[in-house]
Design brief:
The complex is a heterotrimer. Chain A is of the alpha/beta class. Chain A is built from 11 helices and 10 strands. In chain A, the strands form 2 sheets. Chain A has a 6-stranded mixed β-sheet with strand order 6-7-8-3-9-10, with helices on both faces. A 4-stranded antiparallel β-sheet of chain A has the order 2-1-4-5, covered by helices on one side. In chain A, a hairpin with a 2-residue loop joins β4 and β5. In chain A, α3 crosses α4 and α5 runs parallel beside α6. The model of chain A has no long low-confidence stretch (mean pLDDT 90). In chain B, 73% of the residues lie in helices and 4% in strands. Chain B is built from 8 helices and 2 strands; from the N terminus they run αααββααααα. By secondary structure, chain C is an alpha/beta fold. In chain C, the strands form 2 sheets. Chain C has a 6-stranded mixed β-sheet with strand order 6-7-8-3-9-10, with helices on both faces. In chain C, strands 2-1-4-5 form a 4-stranded antiparallel β-sheet, with helices on one face. The C terminus of chain C is likely disordered. The chains are: A alpha/beta, B mainly alpha, C alpha/beta. Chains in contact: A-B, A-C, B-C. At the A-B interface, β6, α3, α4 and α5 of A face α5, α6 and α7 of B.
């Protein structure tokens, strides 16, 4: 969607020349980042730990500098409007953010998942009937309606993350940012979250996903940014970025499919190599190539 | 009983406690205990209630009873002679009254805790004007505490696996303490920070009006019952004052 | 050199759950991975290796000696265990102090402690942050510190609980380098993990646990090729293995390199290599 570099859609979220550091004697955690997130896309952000991904997530969600202080430069805009211009009331629920640790995102107040998800809307002062129907709807949409009466603190990590996502989505944010949502989950939990992200993408949500699991990122993201020492150093489709040998210097593993594409390319099949961007495509291409002749 | 407002339940606690400790007639505690047990039974909470009050608390209370009976100073009517101890009637009576008071007090707290939901309590207090941040800290801590206990176990396992001796001299155990408390505190700080961010994202610090989903208005008799509870508290207090003014 | 023998161990948790049902295995020098779905018993088994849990029935022997009477701290001289959450153990004001905690507990002399700490810090590239407070570091670095503290204990056996969760690629590479070094030195490395790619790249032997019993125990290649057992244990093999299976290849492949090599072999023998120039797409696809 859109040729790289030329895009006339209005971004949902835009960061311009954003720089941030927690204290004057510390290095810039975010060091001149320009990015745009377009409606309906899933944008992946990759980079090694310490590259500034989590700090960037907090900046994009408006938590920095409002809640955590520090030195902030540049502008973050939602629908073209600078975040600093929003009142605290308008900002609440504008951008959804889900963090790594599932347990820490449960408020600890709610006896049931239903109450947990209703917490945000209650704070926003929505009418009672609206809250009831919206919570119901989001639980259904995310496939966790069967958990509605369970105690959120006693759920598995994967379930808690889905509840956390629901709790944030129910407030109808302009976009959803997920900061390594699967890093503390087992394979089953991880799969459920990536399946959920795919589902949200189909439903038209705008998502920013920070992750290390490159094959999963390739399946679910439309575009990917590579962050290194607080700066965006590569940008493009997952295959473009994760196929580039330079990612290794930035502390990110290359896609398995790209490693195999190298082999394919060395045999002269450049056209085939270009198509190996996802699991299914790779299987199709390799099957074709090895069954010929 | 679950349907009563949290405020009524708190006042009820106050009322019963006042009767137990302030009202001059010593056996009031026994009656309160009986009444509370009845309430528990009627609300199908007997098992858990009895479990805590009678099974858990009783041994301690009995021990207290025995100690007090043996060591009661004064009193003239000997019942029993055991080595160099004399068990006197007055002593046993005093000890029994104290024991009953303690049991009754435990019963009050247990019952209130069992029929009050933290979120409901919080919503109720908030509606009556208490700061949401204060109530949040109290209520969420209560909920999360059991899970924190689990972490303490994990920390102990981790440090023992690094050769930390947990048996042995007091000095050794003292040194071990830092390595056990450190992670708990730091971990808790990190968790709290995470949670603060999560709450902020869900509009917790917003200053506008909030909607309250939980219906915290009790049944029609709630108001009346609360007045009765205040009455009980007053009776207890009055009784004490009367006894003080007219001794004997 | 160390040998751990687990003899017909049964374990029942308070509350009645039987997590281990007659597990027997011997662990000698080399790298062993214990995998399995949650609830299968792998974590319970791991805790038996250093005495955190004691068998309800059966016994655990280290170098022929029953550890039932030994304290966990004593067993730590032979078996160092590092848990998955670094924040459950970090408490010292500096990375240096943290890494020296283990060796100091084991009573090594100061000279040896210094040596071991320096070695561990170098292995995990933590020298630059050695005086910083671990709590101020990123999660990946904290995890490296935690694993380094176990490594510094210089024990014959090292047990790692989910060492790759939450870790970035450079950290995983350092870990793999460590495992290689320990293997070469004849030490024993045991890992309990969900990360199949990590297992395939580094571990010669794989033990699969399900429902409290060992359902597979053998060379990595063999275990990952046995897709039926893995499916029954609700464990997925590494991505390359799945890819190979979906392509209908009989040769088991474990890593990206192996797959690339096998692919090259097949391409060379099938369509015929087209050196130099551009290949072209077929007129119609299969």
């Amino acid at each position: 969607m859109g040729v790289a570099g030329v895009d006339d859609r209005v971004p949902v979220l835009e960061a311009r020349d954003v720089r941030f550091r927690y204290a004057p004697n510390l290095p810039w955690a975010v060091d001149g980042v320009n990015l745009q997130v377009f409606p309906g896309e899933v944008l992946g952000i990759l980079g090694e730990n310490g590259a500034g991904k989590s700090t960037l997530a907090l900046v994009l969600a408006g938590i920095i500098p409002r809640l955590l202080g520090g030195e902030f430069q540049g502008r973050v805009m939602v629908d073209g409007r600078d975040m600093q211009e929003f009142s605290a009331g308008e900002l609440a629920g504008l951008v959804g953010l889900v963090l790594q640790n599932p347990f820490n995102q449960m408020t600890g107040l709610a006896a049931t998942v239903f109450d947990e998800v209703a917490f945000g809307p209650q704070n926003l002062g929505w009418p009672r009937q609206v809250i009831l129907s919206e919570v119901e709807a989001v639980l259904d949409r995310l496939g966790i309606a069967h958990l509605r009466n369970r105690n959120p603190l006693s759920l598995s990590g994967g379930e808690q993350q889905r509840v956390a996502i629901a709790s944030v989505l129910v407030m109808k944010p302009r976009l959803l940012i997920l900061d390594e949502p699967t890093s503390q989950l087992d394979p089953a939990g991880t799969e459920s979250i990536f399946a959920l992200i795919g589902l949200l993408r189909k439903q038209g949500y705008t998502t920013v996903l920070i992750e290390h699991k490159v094959e999963a990122v390739a399946e679910v993201c439309d575009r990917v940014l590579l962050l290194r020492q607080g700066r965006v150093v590569l940008e493009g489709t997952p295959a473009e970025v994760l196929g580039d040998a330079r990612v290794v210097e930035a502390g990110v593993r290359r896609l398995l499919y790209s490693e195999l594409a190298d082999t394919v390319r060395s045999f002269g099949y450049a056209w085939a190599a270009g198509r190996m961007t996802s699991y299914r495509d790779t299987v199709a291409v390799l099957r074709e190539l090895t069954e010929r002749g | 009983m679950h349907l009563l407002t949290p405020a009524t339940k708190l006042v009820g606690a106050l009322g019963f406690l006042s009767l137990i400790f302030l009202f001059p007639w010593p056996w009031t505690a026994g009656i309160v205990l009986a009444v509370l047990s009845l309430l528990a039974a009627v609300s199908s909470l007997w098992r858990k209630f009895a479990g805590i009050v009678f099974r858990a608390a009783l041994p301690y209370v009995l021990m207290l009873l025995v100690m007090q009976s043996l060591f009661f100073p004064g009193g003239a009517t000997p019942l029993l002679r055991l080595a160099w101890f004399t068990v006197k009637l007055e002593g046993v009576m005093y000890a029994t009254v104290t024991a009953l008071r303690i049991l009754a007090m435990v019963a009050v707290f247990v019952l209130v805790q069992m029929v009050t939901h933290p979120a409901a309590m919080m919503a109720d207090l908030e509606q009556r004007g208490l700061s949401s941040k204060v109530t949040y800290v109290v209520v969420s801590t209560l909920n999360i505490l059991p899970f924190l206990m689990g972490r303490a176990g994990a920390i102990l396992d981790a440090q023992r696996s690094r050769g930390l001796e947990t048996e042995g001299s007091i000095l050794r155990r003292g040194r071990a303490l830092l390595s056990l408390i450190g992670p708990l505190v730091v971990g808790t700080i990190n968790d709290v920070q995470d949670r603060a961010v999560a709450l902020e994202l869900r509009g917790f610090s917003r200053t506008g009006t909030r909607t309250f989903l939980t219906d915290t208005s009790g049944p029609p008799c709630d108001r009346a019952l609360r007045l009765v509870m205040w009455g009980l508290a007053a009776v207890g207090l009055l009784g004490r004052v009367v006894a003080w003014v007219w001794p004997g | 050199m160390a040998e751990i023998a687990v003899e017909d161990v049964w374990f029942e948790y308070e509350g009645g759950v039987t997590a281990l049902r007659g597990v027997s295995l011997t662990i000698g020098p080399g790298a062993v991975a214990v995998i399995g779905n949650n609830g299968g018993g792998k974590t319970t088994l791991m805790k038996h290796l250093n005495g955190l849990l004691r068998p309800t029935r059966g016994r655990v022997l280290i170098n022929g000696r029953d550890i039932a009477t030994l304290s966990v701290a004593r067993i730590a001289r032979e078996v160092a265990l590092s848990f998955q959450n670094p924040d459950d153990q970090l408490f010292s004001p500096s990375v240096e102090a943290e890494v020296s905690f283990g060796p100091r507990n084991l009573g090594y002399d100061e000279g040896r402690i210094r040596q071991l700490v320096d070695w561990a810090l170098a292995l995990f590239q933590l020298e630059e942050v050695r005086r910083q407070n671990p709590a101020d570091l990123s999660f990946s670095l904290r995890k490296r510190v935690a694993i380094a503290s176990a490594v510094a204990m210089d024990t014959p056996v090292l047990v790692l609980d989910e060492p790759t969760t939450g870790q970035d690629y450079p950290s995983i590479l350092l870990l793999e380098k460590l495992i290689g070094e320990l293997k070469a030195a004849g030490r024993t490395v045991v890992t309990v993990t969900h990360d199949m790619e990590f297992v395939a790249r580094n571990f010669d032997r794989v033990v699969v646990m399900a429902r409290g019993v060992v359902v597979a125990d053998g060379p990595c290649r063999q275990v990952f090729a046995d897709l039926d057992t893995l499916a029954a244990a609700r464990v997925a093999p590494p991505l390359v293995a799945r890819l190979a299976r979906d392509l209908g290849w009989q040769t088991p492949v474990l890593t990206a390199q192996e797959m690339a090599a096998e692919l090259a072999r097949r391409l060379a023998t099938s369509g015929g290599a087209q050196e130099g120039g551009e290949g072209h797409a077929p007129a119609a696809s299969h």
